[in-house]
């Protein structure tokens, strides 16, 4: 039962943080939403930052999983598309972390370190993907171009939702679809002709 209550608190907090923004939600709001006493909530979690750290652990485990490369082969465009979709789905499910990123990380050194680790792994993965596309003869690019494109992929994916929110986009799921297309378009100038046609087909199928 205690484990069920812990999970209910985490699930409720995640939904409220995503819907209302983490800074506006207090532990009392979460307890009221669950119809439990604040004391019951504090039995499971010391404070709101404790809840956020547990949610971050969920996010971290999921992001680690989706950043895994294809087994035993070089990546193709569809591999990248699928991985981007999984990454953006994870960002969507934990979107409060990205919308309120500076606010959250500014007050929690442990989360800063852990988020930096995720960014480092994502950066390594982006560079490996671009090098893999080059080795597979999918793209034609100099090493410096590969490095720059990999960094741009990561920066765009990390901050796309914030950009969309500031721009005034109200449909965040559409914003995520747009973000995936935008990231893929960063690769387009380096693609060989046949692969560029393939990318345009993927984009039309995804956006129609």
Layout of SSEs?
Layout (H helix, E strand, L loop, with lengths): L1 H19 L6 H8 L3 H7 L3 H19 L10 H17 L1 H5 L1 H6 L2 H27 L7 H25 L4 H16 L5 H15 L1
Helix pairs in contact: 1-2, 1-4, 4-5, 4-8, 5-10, 8-9, 9-10, 10-11
Q: What is the succession of H and E elements?
A: HHHHHHHHHHH
**Strand residue percentage:** under 5%
Terminal Cα span:
46 Å
What shape does the CA trace take?
elongated
Structural class: mainly alpha
Helix content: over 70%
Largest sheet: none
What is the overall pLDDT average? 90
What is the number of strand segments?
Answer: 0
Radius of gyration: 19 Å
Number of helices: 11
Low-confidence segments, given as residue ranges, are none
Fold and architecture overview:
79% of the residues lie in helices and 0% in strands. The chain has 208 residues and is an all-alpha fold. The longest helix is centred in the middle third of the chain and has 27 residues, at 109-135.
Quick structural gist:
With 208 residues, this protein is mainly alpha-helical. 79% of the residues lie in helices and 0% in strands.
Describe this protein with a few key phrases.
elongated, mainly alpha, 208 residues, 11 helices
């Amino acid at each position: 039962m205690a484990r069920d209550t812990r999970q209910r608190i985490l699930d409720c907090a995640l939904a409220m943080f995503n819907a209302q923004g983490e800074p506006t939600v207090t532990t009392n709001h979460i307890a009221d939403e669950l119809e439990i006493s604040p004391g019951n909530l504090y039995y499971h979690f010391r404070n709101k930052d404790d809840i956020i750290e547990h949610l971050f652990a969920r996010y971290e485990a999921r992001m680690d999983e989706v950043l895994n490369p294809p087994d035993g082969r070089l990546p193709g465009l569809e591999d990248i598309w699928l991985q981007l979709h999984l990454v953006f789905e994870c960002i969507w499910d934990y979107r409060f972390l990205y919308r309120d990123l500076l606010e959250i990380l500014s007050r929690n050194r442990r989360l800063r370190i852990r988020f930096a680790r995720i960014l480092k792994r994502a950066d390594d993965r982006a560079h490996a993907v671009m090098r893999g596309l080059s080795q597979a003869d999918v793209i034609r690019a100099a090493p410096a171009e590969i490095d720059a494109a990999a960094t741009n992929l990561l920066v765009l994916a990390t901050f796309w939702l914030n950009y969309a929110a500031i721009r005034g986009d109200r449909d965040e799921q559409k914003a995520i679809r747009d973000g995936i297309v935008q990231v893929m378009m960063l690769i387009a100038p380096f693609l060989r002709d046949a692969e560029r046609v393939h990318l345009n087909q993927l984009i039309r199928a995804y956006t129609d």
